[in-house]
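Summary of Year 1 activities. Much of the first year was spent building the evaluation harness for sequence design. The harness presents a backbone, in tokenized form, and records the residue chosen at every position. We chose the following record to illustrate the format because it has been used consistently in internal testing since the harness was completed.
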């Protein structure tokens, strides 16, 4: 029987890659996120066709708990009980703390941290009664170390890692596993935004920002690939990963080894 997975923030970047990989592994998938309707429909239809599974789109804004509840109701109705959640949706804002816009702080904490609490509390009773569940939180190297000017993001990701450990303990005897994937830099639209902002702020070219700022922290001097993260996420849903629980899995070219 095919499993059902919800991947939040999967109309772009890492989430889209994870949704594609889970579908290829045989899961029915709910995708979610913002963007152009025609582009999202193209992604949905191609996931369905390539994976030979069902793929349903939810436009839920994950900063709004009632929309997360509606997303779960749709997933259950169209795909069945939710077996796998990938909490991936996230945004970034870079600013010195004294200038950090309060609305950006609230947005980042709501989306990057609180949304994972809501998806988990909604999925947990069913996962417990079915004695199987996988919750994968897409955290960051910034769940383990900080960088200046990213107060909200670093706080949310450190919090997400704490939540991951707690969920892992609460689900351990119910067949539920919860882990965090902690990527270094991946070249997605989220990072493109940072490259452009930094280039403007520091009067550098985008290439200089990539080589001297972004990849400065990453010993391999290479971006992490979306597909690398997607394959790790799929592995965490397999039986071989059954004893991996409450872990922070770094996939960052050695960044946090320093
Ligand atoms: P992205 O900008 O390409 O994708 C973000 C996704 O979240 C999109 O689908 C977007 O529509 C969705 N989204 C934004 N606001 C939303 C909301 N309110 N409700 C629902 N969906 C919303 O970003 P990405 O780089 O693929 O990042 C995905 C995750 O990976 C984030 O949690 C990010 O913090 C984390 N991460 C990224 C990197 C990186 O270098 N790109 C590194 C470490 C961790």
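For this record, the design step produced the sequence shown next.
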């Amino acid at each position: 029987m095919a499993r059902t997975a919800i991947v939040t923030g999967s109309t772009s970047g890492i989430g889209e890659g994870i949704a594609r990989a889970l579908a290829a592994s045989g899961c029915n998938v709910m995708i979610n996120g913002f963007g152009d309707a025609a582009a999202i429909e193209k992604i949905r239809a191609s996931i369905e066709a390539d994976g030979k599974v069902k793929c349903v789109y939810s436009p839920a804004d994950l900063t709004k708990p009632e929309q997360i509840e509606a997303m779960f109701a749709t997933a259950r109705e169209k795909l069945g009980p939710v077996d796998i959640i990938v909490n991936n949706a996230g945004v970034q804002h870079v600013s010195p703390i004294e200038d950090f816009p309060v609305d950006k702080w609230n947005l980042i904490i709501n989306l990057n941290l609180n949304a994972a609490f809501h998806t988990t509390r909604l999925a947990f009773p069913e996962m417990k009664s079915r004695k199987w569940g996988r919750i994968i939180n897409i955290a960051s190297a910034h769940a383990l170390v900080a960088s200046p000017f990213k107060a909200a993001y670093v706080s949310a990701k450190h919090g997400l890692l704490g939540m991951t450990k707690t969920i892992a303990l609460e689900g351990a005897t119910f067949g539920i596993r919860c882990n965090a994937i902690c990527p270094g830099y991946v070249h997605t639209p989220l990072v493109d935004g940072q490259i452009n902002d930094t280039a403007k702020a520091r009067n550098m070219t985008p290439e200089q920002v990539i080589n001297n700022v972004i990849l400065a922290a990453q010993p391999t001097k290479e971006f992490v690939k979306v597909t690398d993260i997607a394959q790790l996420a799929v592995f965490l849903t397999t039986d071989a990963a059954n004893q991996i629980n409450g872990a922070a899995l770094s996939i960052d070219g050695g960044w946090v080894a320093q």
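Residues 9-15, 32-35, 61-63, 88-91, 111-112, 138, 140, 183, 185-186, 188-191 surround nicotinamide-adenine-dinucleotide (CB under 6 Å). Quantitative recovery figures across the full test set are reported in Table 2.
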